[in-house]
Each structure stands twice: as C-alpha cells, then as structure tokens.
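Training component of the fellowship. As part of building independent skills, the fellow (R.M.) carried out the full modelling exercise for a liganded target. The chosen ligand was D-xylitol-5-phosphate. The inputs are recorded below so that the supervisory panel can assess the work.
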Amino acid sequence: MHLVAPSLLAADFRRLNEAITFVNESEADWFHLDVMDGNFVPNISFGPFIIEQIAQDATKYLDVHLMIDQPERYIEDFAKAGASGITIHAEATNHVHRVVQQIKEAGCKAGVALNPHTPVGVLENIIEELDLVLIMTVNPGFGGQKFIYQSIPKIRQAYDMIQVRNSPAIIEVDGGIGLQNAQKVLEAGARVLVAGSAVFKADDPAEVVRRLKAISGNPVSMV
Ligand code: DX5
Ligand code: ZN
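Fellow's submitted model of the complex:
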C-alpha cells in the first residue's frame, strides 16, 4: 500500500496547528517537512526550531526533506528536533555515503533526493544503504509547480535498480503530485506521494487525501 505525505509548506502558517491536527486526523501517513536554505534552493522556509514545535503535536512520521547545502552540518539538530526520516540531496554534499551513515547513527531513516537533471545512476554505489529514494518531480524550491513528465521513466529506473540490488529503499515522489498523476507515478514504482498544493489548496483537503489513498496503482511493467 502506498503512503501519502502532505507537505506543510502549502499550509496556512497562521494556522499551523490546524494543519497539524488535520494531518493527524486524516488518512495521510506522514508529515512532509521542506527545509530550504536560500542557497541550495532560492527559497527559505524553516529549520529545526519549527520542526521541534511541529513534533510536539504531530502524531505521525516526520519526513524531513533537507534542501540545504552541506546537510552534514545539521543532521543531529534535525534528529533532535524529532525527525523520523531525513532526506538529503545528492547534489548538496560531496559525501553522500558519510551523511547517510550520520543520519542512521542519529536514529533516523535515511533518504537521498535527486533533482530532475540528476541521473539515477549516482545512487548505484549506495542504493543498498538507503531507506528512501526521493525523485524530485519539479525543481526543488517552491510548492505549486508543474509536474515534470520525464520523471516517470526515471522513477521506473530507480525502481528497477532497487529490485535488482535487493535494496530496502522505497521511492518517494515530490512536486506537482495530485489526483491527475498519482496513478502514473505509483505504476512507475513510487510508494510515497508527497502532495502540498493538491491537499492544502483544495476545498476539501481530507477528501483529496482520501482519494489519493484510494488510488490503486501498483508498479507495472513499462514495456
Ligand atoms: C518543493 C518541495 C515540495 C513541495 C511540494 O521543493 O520539496 O515538497 O512542498 O509542493 P506541491 O505538491 O505543491 O508541488
Ligand atoms: Zn519536499
């Protein structure tokens, strides 16, 4: 069964508590928390201090997506703040392997994210170590962007690599995900659907989560 992870970035931060309660009570599985440093990506969002506050009320898995340069500087801070899983970008550090170990030593699940232009092959020598592969389906930095369709075969490539190498990793997709493309990405091999605008900008966010959960889409052969 796939998981749905609403991204709080699209929530109304004046009513953050309502958004947290909504995710707690909805059929969603994870909280997706987008950390942006104004350097790796042009935007700035929030850091460990805010995540620590969220963690006090959140009752589900905290999926922390670090869009920051040299994430090795902050792993322990995010773990202490309450992250369940931490995903770093392959493009953001020279030492992906070392940071993945650092995340695990801090007691969190370890993920690596790939920007749209980064080939899946960069994970070749680390795939067995990963709990999660995040395929960005937009260029990171902002919510509400258009899904990049070329991501679909890329999800499949990651899926095939995971199968062949017997890796425990699951695939997460992030960016422009909604009811219009959820089935396609699930069929390509995605297991976790991050959805920001599709959930929080909807008239009935609970219904969108329910419908995203209800989509049946298991990985199918692409050939
Ligand atoms: C983009 C972030 C996403 C973003 C998704 O850089 O990583 O998690 O919040 O937002 P939507 O679903 O609106 O594209
Ligand atoms: Zn994200």
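The panel noted the following from the submitted structure. Residues 187 and 219 are 4 Å apart (CA to CA). Strands lie at 3-6, 30-36, 61-67, 85-89, 109-114, 132-136, 170-174, 192-195.
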